[in-house]
Specification:
mainly alpha, 44% helix
């Protein structure tokens, strides 16, 4: 009887660990890059302009070229943009500046 209980406990532990790993993996899969929402020094990595390639190097709040990783589907709610829209906006700003 004690052996059956020990086996059942071991199986429950293994199955629970698998569920936790799957949940963590699915959380990571549900993240997206959101441009234009980072506070200065709070970006996650390289910017669209190519002026830096590291996290925490942004110098202005809400720079359209800087991004943060956010839960999938929340970017627009946070006032941000996906990569293609941010790139489009940067191109338009450069054209206007040079124009």
């Amino acid at each position: 009887m004690k052996t059956n209980l020990a086996i059942a406990a071991a199986l429950a532990t293994i199955m629970t660990a698998g569920v936790i790993d799957a949940a963590e993996a699915s959380d990571k899969a549900k993240k997206e890059k959101c441009y234009g929402i980072s506070a200065a020094g709070q970006n996650d990595c390289a910017n669209l302009a190519g002026t830096h390639s590291c996290a925490g190097q942004s110098t202005a709040d809400n720079d359209i070229g800087e991004w943060r990783l956010v839960p999938g589907g929340s970017c627009t709610e946070l006032g941000g943009f996906d990569r293609s829209k941010a790139k489009e906006m940067m191109t338009a700003m450069k054209a206007k500046k040079n124009g």
